[in-house]
Specification:
Layout lengths: L2 E3 L6 E3 L3 E3 L7 E5 H14 L1 H16 L2 H17 L1 H18 L4 H10 L14 E2 L2 E2 L3 E4 L6 E5 L1 H9 L4 H17 L1
Antiparallel strand pairs: 1-2, 3-4, 5-6, 7-8
Helix pairs in contact: 3-4
This protein binds zinc ion (ZN) (2 copies).
The site of one zinc ion (ZN) has 8 residues, from helix 6.
Length: 185
């Protein structure tokens, strides 16, 4: 049995304990399988942030491709059909990623939610619109481009102020416009 020397743990181990690439120039890894795994784990730990950033950028790029999006959507729909628990895990994850996007902790979200009695901060109604048969969560309204959260809004009000470019002057003009036309009726 051929033995190889591992440069990390300095042990001699049988060939089978080493990764190898028969077609490459190098052919054999300098480290045994155990040490290679350890190296990867350590590399990942020190480069985790860079790695995450890279993966996120790549995912963003992919998400712009319609054929990729269609494939992901079909895959998710299939999993929802096949596994009833999948939808619940999707909801949990999307909630978590929404919180992360605005640097909001779960406690801070709950605080907003409780202060507003679970209703929209503008129309004071609870959310009625649904997605995939489930009532939507209130949207996290934030200052555009900043991670400053103003409050929670229903889907309609959130879109509404968005269409008015979050601009109080424009909204004011809209109110005056509506009042003017009301007087004509
Ligand atoms: Zn080793
Ligand atoms: Zn509302």
């Amino acid at each position: 049995m051929d033995l190889r020397h591992c440069n990390d743990c300095s042990q001699s181990k049988p060939n089978i304990e080493f990764y190898h690439w028969p077609k490459s120039k190098k052919k054999w890894s300098n480290y045994c399988r155990n040490c290679t795994k350890k190296r990867h784990r350590e590399w990942y730990k020190t480069n985790e942030n860079a790695q995450r950033k890279y993966q996120r950028a790549k995912a963003k790029l992919y998400w712009k491709k319609p054929e990729y999006r269609a494939r992901v959507k079909a895959y998710r729909a299939k999993r929802r059909r096949e596994n009833p628990k999948y939808r619940a895990s999707e909801i949990k994850q999307s909630h978590r990623s929404r919180l992360r996007r605005y640097d909001l902790t779960a406690e801070e979200y709950t605080k907003f939610h409780d202060q507003q009695n679970g209703a929209c901060a503008i129309c004071l109604q609870v959310e009625t619109s649904t997605r995939l048969g489930r009532r939507r969560d209130l949207a996290i309204d934030h200052v555009h481009g900043l991670k400053v959260v103003r409050g929670l809004l229903c889907n309609r009000c959130n879109r509404g102020i968005g269409y008015f470019r979050d601009d109080p002057l424009l909204l004011d003009a809209a109110i005056r416009y509506l009042s003017r036309s009301r007087r004509k009726i």
